[in-house]
Amino acid sequence: MTASPELQREMLRQMQTIRRFEERASDDYHNGAIYGVVHCYIGEEAVAVGVCSALNKDDQIISNHRGHGHCIAKGADLNRMMAELYGRQDGYCKGKGGSMHIADFSIGMLGANGIVGGGLSIVTGAGLAAQLEGKGRVAVCFFGDGASNAGSFHESLNIAARWKLPMLYVCEHNSWAANTSSRMTHARDDVASRAAGYGIPGVVVDGNDVLAVYEAATDAVARARAGEGPTLIECKTYRWRAHTERPGAADPRPLEEIAAWMAKDPIQHLVDDLKQQQGQYSDAEFQALDDAVMSAVAAAVAFAEASPFPAPEAALDDVFAD
Amino acid sequence: MTASPELQREMLRQMQTIRRFEERASDDYHNGAIYGVVHCYIGEEAVAVGVCSALNKDDQIISNHRGHGHCIAKGADLNRMMAELYGRQDGYCKGKGGSMHIADFSIGMLGANGIVGGGLSIVTGAGLAAQLEGKGRVAVCFFGDGASNAGSFHESLNIAARWKLPMLYVCEHNSWAANTSSRMTHARDDVASRAAGYGIPGVVVDGNDVLAVYEAATDAVARARAGEGPTLIECKTYRWRAHTERPGAADPRPLEEIAAWMAKDPIQHLVDDLKQQQGQYSDAEFQALDDAVMSAVAAAVAFAEASPFPAPEAALDDVFAD
Amino acid sequence: MREISYARAGMEALVEEMRRDPTTIHLATDAPPSLVEEFGEARIRATPITENAFSGIAIGAAGSGLRPIVNWSMVTFCFVAMDQIVNQASKIHYMFGGQQTFPIVFRSSVGGGTSLAAQHSQSPYSMFMNLAGLKLILPATPYDMKGLLKSAIRDNNPVLSFESTRLMGFKGEVPDDDYTIPLGVADVKRTGSDITVVALAWLVHEALAAAEEMAKEGVSVEVVDPRTLFPMDNETIRASVQKTGRLVIADEAGPTAGAAAEIAALVTEDAATFAALKAPPKRVCALQVPIPYSPGLENHVFPDRNRIIAGIREVMAAG
Amino acid sequence: MREISYARAGMEALVEEMRRDPTTIHLATDAPPSLVEEFGEARIRATPITENAFSGIAIGAAGSGLRPIVNWSMVTFCFVAMDQIVNQASKIHYMFGGQQTFPIVFRSSVGGGTSLAAQHSQSPYSMFMNLAGLKLILPATPYDMKGLLKSAIRDNNPVLSFESTRLMGFKGEVPDDDYTIPLGVADVKRTGSDITVVALAWLVHEALAAAEEMAKEGVSVEVVDPRTLFPMDNETIRASVQKTGRLVIADEAGPTAGAAAEIAALVTEDAATFAALKAPPKRVCALQVPIPYSPGLENHVFPDRNRIIAGIREVMAAG
Ligand SMILES: Cc1ncc(C[n+]2csc(CCOP(=O)(O)OP(=O)(O)O)c2C)c(N)n1
Ligand SMILES: Cc1ncc(C[n+]2csc(CCOP(=O)(O)OP(=O)(O)O)c2C)c(N)n1
Ligand SMILES: [Mg+2]
Ligand SMILES: [Mg+2]
Predict the structure, then answer these.
(1) What domain count does chain B have?
(2) In Å, how far from its chain's centre is CA B303?
(3) pLDDT confidence of residue C63
């Protein structure tokens, strides 16, 4: 299925939001307002947005350590995201989680996760719940090429395939796991080639083409809702920035490789598509979009700054539920 | 490569030894001389014997909870095996291990293992050591269809394939993991179909035909010694007995299924082959072989009975090496 | 009152709670036929041998509105799933700011005594005590098993239920009607005035036997069973030791940084209890070694009523 | 003497031992370029993100004649590998009757203080203390790091090296020549006569600062650093407490069944030490919660010099 013009514009807005949000998060991390660690998704926006555009609000996703893009694409509130990064009371996790643990169960965002491969089985449990509920919900796992080598990938895909769970496993293949190239770690570079062993479709997509991602996801969602089981979608993409924003950390990736991928900017790609398809899309229109996005990010920062730090004793709350 | 007549007779001797050894172990378990748990390999003898016949003494294997067959095929001493089952001082593990933990590092038998999937990575480390040593040694993993769904299968095969380790991964597909049918647990029943995802050969063999297993193993060993990396060999076979020898334990397997597989007895299969190929092989010859095997088993029992129980305080030894 | 076994009591708790609440599901490598018959294959899932995956599946299902009950079978197998327990289940409610509950029970059998050797004879509950975010139960009788397991299933947090291998066939009185035992409440299994024995699981029964024996010598032994390891009922334990002034702790696990160490520490760090102590508290635990196979070796490693008696005598003699 | 950082001291130990023994290999998800350059890709393996597999690979390689050094990076990631640690590495020498040695070092960083939240701020060393069959080191200075890590690499058993995140940049004197520190020997980091503080890793330095502070008030604090958690140097700890009669235990981990509980128990169960105690021993540990992200919350959870001082005052006041 192809995306309507409106949907394409919405996709563009989301991608630009992810980018601007993270540019700001990176700045604020470097100037000390955000703590711990920040992993940026910039360059990979088309994957989260393409997939989530094919979902309903009550469908569920799970993310990994690089979670801002997935959150935003699933509809998370920028204010509460930024407040969480700022470690404030009104953050999604009341300041307990930070960048690596943002979740919003009310919109089906089951959380970022600091453990590579950790989310694969958890979201498979959401797929099981969806199947038992029988209302056609689907569950989606976002994970990296690095995670695809973890045992939990194999265990989860085999179970989901055997139980015909309504799921999408979306591998964001950016060719690097921290500072290790996937050429060092993958017996076969195409992760999708593993799908055959589970008797499920394995699809390779240009992960910088949001419309291609959307189409692949739409097909897989239809398959899942029809009770035909999971699909493995491998999106070839690239992160523009180092593994984390930590100043001075090594980044062994060749500069030409980075430059080549930056030339394939997913946002520019969609802008070009829009211009081509619908002659009327203009630079001015994009500028207006970006202005709106920038205001939303600025508002999120203002919200975060206005939110108090949690009281120290709040550290003792939420260990157990009632 | 086809096995020489002498080798075929040796294979027959080993298979018959496994069977008679375990018949005795089962009896002695039921009469209380052997403790804990005993998992019998009877019906699957052709796998261990076919594979180990393709190995040298300094090649290494690892086993699982169903380990007697692998031990015997790799050349373990029946006396010390039986003494271990009897919990005696002269057992392979000085009475500390029992059936699930027999090992003999001096013959490249890296141990039985009570954790399903636990041995897959350990033996991959032996393969790494063999590669670094550079003397052409290979390492072999025996594991069940149940283990093939564990994360360690995926992690280990991907690494072995990527590093081109000199290894054989031998799946003993007996269609059951304890009381659960592989139809319930495998998205695709053929485990070998997963090899393609790692870019390595995946071979399916009649696991009750020792000569077929031997040929497949010989090819894979040659490939491994040539530095071309691992092979996944799936042997279709069946266990004749319940999952463990525990009296009264449930065995949900259909009687017809058991009967059908018993009709494909791997020992009878080789006897028939020998008779056909070498008209001279006679029932009398087989009888003589069996007599010799029975004496060896009886001698092992006598050895075990003569060996003392370890002193209670020996429980404190061997926690740490010097 | 009717008597049923410890294993049966666990099964009754499970079945009754699964009847009570249709959002409960059961995940294990084995799908017990009686459960499949009553609840169907949709709710009773036979999983591949993937403790890591099906423990994670339980977490995701719990976060999506179900109440999973996982059976790892032996505790041994949970180590394959440890990432999901340590990094996810124990922290997920907290690190997401309490926005979602994760009601899950993870059942497993613990302990030795059946010649299953090192891997299959483990009592590692203390490993989970130092983690925050998990509740831990360790029942010693059929009555406690049923009541605690029901509470665990109704609890909105991940609860680990450690069930003693040695007690599976042990019979005891269990009422017919529905009852629960609150988590975090110890049980004084025998009252006494001279010395407190805090005993866990199988060793509760060995301690009771030891108490019987010591009574003949005129020593009055109080036996306290914490039943829940986290939260631990510090008050009941301290009150008992304040009364008796003496403490022996009996645990089938090794002593080092074990539940027994925690019990010793919680008693001695409390000013009033410390002041009441007449002698050093004593741990009667397994020897700090892996568990060997051969019965003579294995028996040498585990504590039993005789070692508890020796421990009681030692403490009585000390002050 | 030259001063180098704690992290650098670890790297020196690794490099020197890898030069010394060509059977050593290094396994981690990251292959540090300097190591690859010196030792080559064959010995310095960049693994996929498969802590379970590469920990198992280390065991098999060790059993086949190599001496693997594994770096899990954060201790967090070892939970994926727990089956290989708990069910295999700790038991394999014993359950095979001692027929083969398994010389392996598993390195990881522990602790909090860097706003990395619950999963990435763990100090779970006590989980491994209750297991039998593993040696455990926890160095607090560059000197100890280098000497202990060298001993660990030369040891013929699996050794877990827990290395404090907070101390990575901490500098201290380290001699140029080869030296080792035997496993199982505690170090009295400061002598004193009024109270003993047994402190671990980062808290050794906080305890020293607290001691300095208390000296101004005329309280003489002895600071003991066990350095090795298993085997624990019971003698040195007990001797110190027998001298001072008072004990505070400072640990960045939570108290429950933690290393601090073990230290409390080993002190109080010893008759002579128990007799010498003037006040209840006190644990100054992290609060028993997962570690939160926001700095104010995180600081509230961890112990520091101020809480140690408060603990010392409390114990001094008690008797
Ligand atoms: C089990 C585990 N091991 C190691 C790490 C450290 N780590 C964090 S992110 C990362 C790389 C992940 O690569 P990939 O899955 O490809 O995701 P990407 O960062 O490329 O998006 C590593 C090794 C971890 N978080 N979890
Ligand atoms: C991790 C783990 N989970 C569960 C078990 C219990 N268990 C022992 S053997 C077995 C079945 C193994 O099946 P398979 O691998 O096919 O080997 P087979 O017994 O058929 O030879 C199970 C579930 C175990 N030993 N380890
Ligand atoms: Mg990647
Ligand atoms: Mg099987």
Answers:
(1) 1
(2) 23
(3) 98
What DSSP character marks residue B115? S
| Contact assessment for residue A75 and residue A69, using Cβ atoms and an 8 Å cutoff | no
Find the helix or strand (DSSP H, E) in which A167 lies. Answer: strand A167-173
ipTM above 0.95?
yes
Mean pLDDT of A71-96: 98
**Type of residue at B111:** G
Helix axes A5-30, A283-306, angle to 10 degrees: 50
Q: Count of C–D CB contacts within 8 Å?
A: 162
Residue A41 C-alpha from the chain's centroid:
8
CATH of domain D3-173: 3.40.50.970
D153 Cα–ligand 1 center, Å? 27
Longest dimension (CA), chain D: 61
Contact flag A184-D296 (C-beta cutoff 8 Å): no
Q: Find chain C residues with C-beta within 8 A of D91's C-beta.
A: 118-119, 290
Rg (CA), chain A: 19
pLDDT digits (tens, 9 = 90+) for B249-280: 889 999 999 999 999 999 999 999 999 987 77
Calculate how far, in angstroms, residue B149's C-alpha sits from the geometric centre of ligand 2. 11
Q: Is C93 a catalytic residue?
A: no
CATH number of domain containing A187: 3.40.50.970
CA of A173 to the centre of ligand 3 (A): 6
Instruction: From the CA of A143, give the closest atom in ligand 1.
Output: 15
Identify from C90, C96, C129 which residue to disrupt to test chain A contact, counting A C-beta atoms within 10 A and taking the largest count.
C96
CB-CB under 8 Å, D96 with B97: yes
Find tokens 């594979």 and name the residue. Answer: B51
Across the interface, whether the CB atoms of C269 and D271 are under 8 A apart is answered: no
* Cα gap A14→D28, rounded to integer Å: 37
D136, D256, D285: which to substitute to probe chain C, counting the most C Cβ within 10 Å?
Answer: D256
The reported pLDDT for the residue numbered D185 is: 98
Residue range(s) in chain D whose domain bears CATH number 3.40.50.970: 3-173
In this complex, do B126 and D56 lie within 8 Å of one another by their Cβ atoms? no
Secondary structure element (H or E) that encloses residue D162, with its range: strand D158-164
Pocket mutation for ligand 1, best pick of A66, A116, A152 (most atoms within 8 Å of C-beta): A116
CA distance A153 to chain B (A): 8
Give phi and psi for A246, each to the nearest 5.
Answer: -55, 125
| C29, C30, C49, C54, best to mutate for ligand 2 pocket (most atoms within 8 Å of CB) | C49
Q: How far apart are CA D176 and CA A267, in angstroms?
A: 55
Give C262's contacts in chain D (Cβ within 8 Å): 256-257, 261
Q: What sections of chain C are H helices per DSSP?
A: 6-20, 33-43, 51-62, 82, 92-95, 126-129, 142-154, 202-216, 234-244, 259-268, 271-276, 295-301, 305-318
Q: Which fold has domain D187-318?
A: Rossmann fold (3.40.50)
The H or E element that residue B206 is part of is strand B202-206
Closest by CA to C7, choosing from C135, C119, C136, C172, is: C172
- Note whether C257 and D129 are within 8 A (CB): yes
Radius of gyration from C-alpha coordinates of chain D: 20
DSSP conformation letters of A214-258: HHHHHHHHHHHHTT---EEEEEE---SS-SS--TT----S-HHHH
How does pLDDT run across C234-285, given as a tens digit for each residue? 999 999 999 999 999 999 999 999 999 999 999 999 999 999 999 999 999 9
Closest to D276 measured CA to CA, from D315, D245, D318, D235: D245
The CATH 3.40.50.920 portion of chain D extends over 187-318
Q: Do C49 and B179 touch (CB under 8 A)?
A: no
Which residue does chain C place closest to A157, by CA atoms? C53
Whether residue A237 has its Cβ less than 6 Å from ligand 1: no
